[in-house]
Amino acid sequence: MHIKGIHHVSAITANAKKNYDFYTNVLGMRLVKKTVNQDDTSMYHLFYADEKGNPGTDFTFFEIPRAGNTYPGTHSISTTSLRVKNDETLRFWQERFKQLNVDQDPIKEYANRKTLPFRDPEGQRLMLVSDENNKGVASGQPWGKSVIPLNRGITGLGPVHLTVANLAPTKQVLTEILGFREVGRFDNKLVLETGEGGTGAEVHIEERTDLSRERPGRGSVHHVAFRVEDEQELEQWRLIIQKAGFPNSGLVDRFYFKSLYFREPNHILFELATDGPGFATDEDMDHLGESLSLPPFLEAQREEIEQSLTPLDTNRS
């Protein structure tokens, strides 16, 4: 039993409409689910992913209209990376970002890969990562109806970067409890991997004693989720985490997957999530994300929920 890799990353936006425009029309990702935060149904929860919404490709956003600015610091998921096919693709994106005035840095070598750091309009810290030399977890398949050519599309989530005030306890949780392995250090960041390893299965941790704690807002990340096979494995992980002394949520049914949440010692929220059943559970694969999806336990509240949301047109037909 092992963690298979990154499952999804969930972040915060203050404007669902502008967020949808950027991630679909600029980055060319597919909106595979338009739903609500099950813990606060007054806010959208948008899922962007690959062609089929495969686990390991989901970048999700909670809409919090009154979210203020993010003040970066420790206790944070400080960069989310997105995978692309090869080094040449990074040059395609560099030119596209230049044409569309997307805030970006130069292409650089990091952790033996070519990368392109950039920010979305709300300052979300992002990085494109080349899979040219990847030998680990397989990538997803870019959306065939994207505005981006198929061979240049985003294929999933890459390494997740954490910034902490004290490296040791976070490393201990990831290695001794969750089973990650140390790969090396690059630019003063510890690199850990799990499962088959590679781009889709890494966590990079930077220790910063010179920073204060991050004040999250729009453009910040709420949590990272790691992949487990199924509900039976998730229950075993619950017992392991409980035995280690970490308070946790217990198993939570998110309908599209089942989850367990806990905070590691630097207060970063970790989620373990099952690979299935997936986003086609309640929608046809050809029309994912085109209408508001609600899990069965919220369906009776649909009228009330829809009235609380600002309309968001995602119908592509």
UniProtKB/TrEMBL annotation:
<keyword id="KW-0560">Oxidoreductase</keyword>
<keyword id="KW-0223">Dioxygenase</keyword>
<dbReference type="InterPro" id="IPR037523">
    <property type="entry name" value="VOC_core"/>
</dbReference>
<dbReference type="Pfam" id="PF00903">
    <property type="entry name" value="Glyoxalase"/>
</dbReference>
<dbReference type="InterPro" id="IPR004360">
    <property type="entry name" value="Glyas_Fos-R_dOase_dom"/>
</dbReference>
<dbReference type="InterPro" id="IPR052537">
    <property type="entry name" value="Extradiol_RC_dioxygenase"/>
</dbReference>
<feature type="domain" description="VOC">
    <location>
        <begin position="5"/>
        <end position="131"/>
    </location>
</feature>
<protein>
    <submittedName>
        <fullName>Ring-cleaving dioxygenase MhqA</fullName>
    </submittedName>
</protein>
<feature type="domain" description="VOC">
    <location>
        <begin position="156"/>
        <end position="275"/>
    </location>
</feature>
<dbReference type="InterPro" id="IPR029068">
    <property type="entry name" value="Glyas_Bleomycin-R_OHBP_Dase"/>
</dbReference>
<dbReference type="GO" id="GO:0051213">
    <property type="term" value="F:dioxygenase activity"/>
</dbReference>
